[in-house]
């Protein structure tokens, strides 16, 4: 079959078993597309696979049980290479990132690969998407990606990468998805993120980042979007997706035609300081998760400006003061969590806030009102919106009394 088919061979989503064919009897296939995604094939790949498939543009062997080291050579004309969801081990061959200048998509996710992501002198100038998540790569963020200025997706979550992220992360002007979750990056959040104005998804959670949240986040224009363009799409030619936490569940966003939402997740780090007021201008954000940090200050009432929010997690920080009643204006909010802070006063009950359980407020002993069993008494601090109203009424009554006093004086 390989000998006779001269263009494309699509065999994905079947029950094919056995090893990859190894005996070509010195006959070179003219296939340009070979797709055997999601089967039960196993064993190693031939070292000279480029000799057998010298004209390949698209090679998808993902979702099988191939093992051993990656072949040293692939066709230098490859535009799409996906070997995700297998059992490959060892390092990425130098040939993949030195001779494949046509490569648009590289997927090696969910294997057992080790070593550095790319040597410094690597060059993949046309790369659009890079999915290397769930391996055991080490070292720093790859400097070589500074030469890949067309990148739209980077997903290298759940590896063993380290180093000061702000020193190595380049400015990639077309980047839409940056997922670095579950590594060991340290230092401050890179201010360079503010220069990636088309960024939609930023996931830096479960690292060792510290310092303040940059106050330039409102420079990212895609996060400023209104409701009609808060969700956009991206196409990259792959069917292996990127995993995010969405609505409290781990979900896969298909990379082949991904629905992009505004997501900022910097949870499980050591970030300090206050939520910058600039962050409350990001109307395009649908998920905001800053939980499990060292953030402090009062929760800004201006978070109500994030009118498209569906998930807001501020839990496990050091926020204090009252819970702003203005937040009831977040009409699309489905998940809300401020547990384990130092909040006080009455919990606002209106709109979406009627649906949140007591778990959203645990670990704040001075909070009261439904859905907690702690009732509010007269000494409980009144939420600002009510305080302002009471103050206005008091002033009005005082003005009326003064007016009556002068009337009485005049009559006498």
TrEMBL record:
The keyword Transmembrane applies. The chain crosses the membrane at residues 394-411. It comes from the Eukaryota. Coiled coil: none annotated. The keyword Glycoprotein applies. One of its GO terms (cellular component) is plasma membrane. Keywords: Cell membrane, Glycoprotein, Leucine-rich repeat, Membrane, Receptor, Repeat, Transmembrane, Transmembrane helix. InterPro entries: Leu-rich_rpt (IPR001611), Leu-rich_rpt_typical-subtyp (IPR003591), LRR_dom_sf (IPR032675), RLP_Defense_Trigger (IPR051502). It is found in: Cell membrane. Belongs to the RLP family. This is Leucine-rich repeat-containing N-terminal plant-type domain-containing protein. It comes from Gossypium klotzschianum.
